[in-house]
Amino acid sequence: MFASFDSLFHLMAAFPDEQTCVDHFRSIRWRDGEFCPHCNGGRIYSFSDRKTFKCRDCRKRFSIKVGTIFKDTKLPLRKWFMAIWLITNHPKGIASTTLAKDLKITQKSAWFVLHRLRHAARTKSFNAPLHGTVEADETFVGGK
Hints:
Elements: H1 8-14, H2 18-29, E1 44-46, E2 52-55, E3 61-63, H3 77-88, H4 96-103, H5 107-121
Antiparallel strand pairs: 1-2, 2-3
Helix pairs in contact: 4-5
């Protein structure tokens, strides 16, 4: 589900609850097959809650968030998705106080979310070369 959302309302309609967010993130993270984030084992099974998994090799329990920027947070993925949409749709950036107010979280949590997302934007996998048709708004190329 790599849809383009033109409003926060459309994003929330696409992800009405936490489980749809987990299922979507699971399809992105494990598109090449399921693996354990602890030992990279390929034999895992899920529990009935569909949010927790266990590796058959190392016997450790984990969630889909382990090993990602979403690890060790109590914020639901739905709020993370909203934060990503808000940050990417504010061309001049967004303050942690504004993000906190928009997401109904504390300013400290909003600051944490912003720093995690900025850290992710600096990673090599995030900065892969663009391909296909690329649009750029408000760009000045060249000089005198």
